[in-house]
Specification:
244 residues, 8-stranded mixed sheet, TIM Barrel, 30% helix, globular, 3-stranded antiparallel sheet, alpha/beta
Length: 244
């Protein structure tokens, strides 16, 4: 069984859209969003996947979501059938933190059509299940910086970072909220030998105005440090909405 997020009560967040971030930006893709996360970013734009009533981990909106309306348990075969019905040759598995459900994901992706490319979006703290790992085409690893509000000992696990660096399928995406965040990214890059060609900077924001304002000062910083820049295309196209 898999625990999914919902778009509306009782409707799993399984959909087709354009990938909005990172190396696959703009590609037509199927998405499945899982519920639950082991971290708590105070700016998280999918807090409905983890901040349920009774969870006091801090978030800037201070909203609490009812678990029954925002979480759904489904059989792996049913999830795979819904994904296949979307007719896409690429799947992005996102969350929450999807690698918390590695065994169920391994069973689910084994049921997808042959040739389906699999991307996994992860905060980088959880090792992939071996049976899932062999099916993954690309990992989009987003280590959380200090401004996320997560303690470094939870968010930046040295052994895990080393494992991702050694995997050529892993691309790194750092969320940037202020210019001073660049110093932390550069320090992490240097300390863990993260290849610059696999490292993206992405502005934090859930509306076009905020994203464009940050891109204006982030672009020259990316250029100065020789780092790649990614936008959040889905926010510009659809806003901060579920199922997009």
């Amino acid at each position: 069984m898999l625990t999914l997020a919902t778009t509306t009560p009782g409707e799993p967040e399984i959909f087709a859209s354009l990938q909005g971030e990172g190396p696959s930006i703009g590609r037509p893709t199927a998405f499945v969003r899982l519920s639950r996360c082991n971290l708590a970013c105070h700016w998280c734009d999918t807090a409905y996947t983890w901040r349920f009533s009774g969870d006091n981990r801090p978030h800037r909106d201070n909203l609490a979501f009812e678990r029954g309306a925002n979480q759904l348990v489904m059989d792996e075969a049913d999830v795979a059938a819904r994904i296949a019905a979307l007719g896409q040759d690429r799947l992005v598995i996102t969350g929450g933190e999807p690698l918390l459900q590695g065994p169920g994901l391994a069973r689910m992706v084994a049921l997808l059509p042959q040739g389906t490319a699999i991307e996994v979006e992860t905060n980088g703290t959880v090792a992939p299940h071996p049976a899932l790992d062999v099916r993954v085409t690309q990992y989009n690893v987003s280590p959380k910086l200090a401004h996320s509000g997560n303690p470094a000992e939870l968010a930046l696990v040295p052994d895990r970072l080393a494992a991702w660096v050694s995997d050529p399928r892993a691309w790194f995406k750092f969320v940037i909220a202020a210019p001073e965040d660049l110093a932390e990214v550069v320090a992490l890059r240097d300390a863990h030998a993260i290849p610059g060609e696999r490292l993206y900077l992405m502005p934090e924001g859930t509306d076009s105005t905020a994203l464009n304002a940050r891109l204006r000062w982030l672009a020259p910083l990316a250029l100065a440090h020789g780092l790649r820049l990614t936008d959040r295309l889905h926010i510009h196209l659809y806003g901060d909405t579920r199922g997009t």
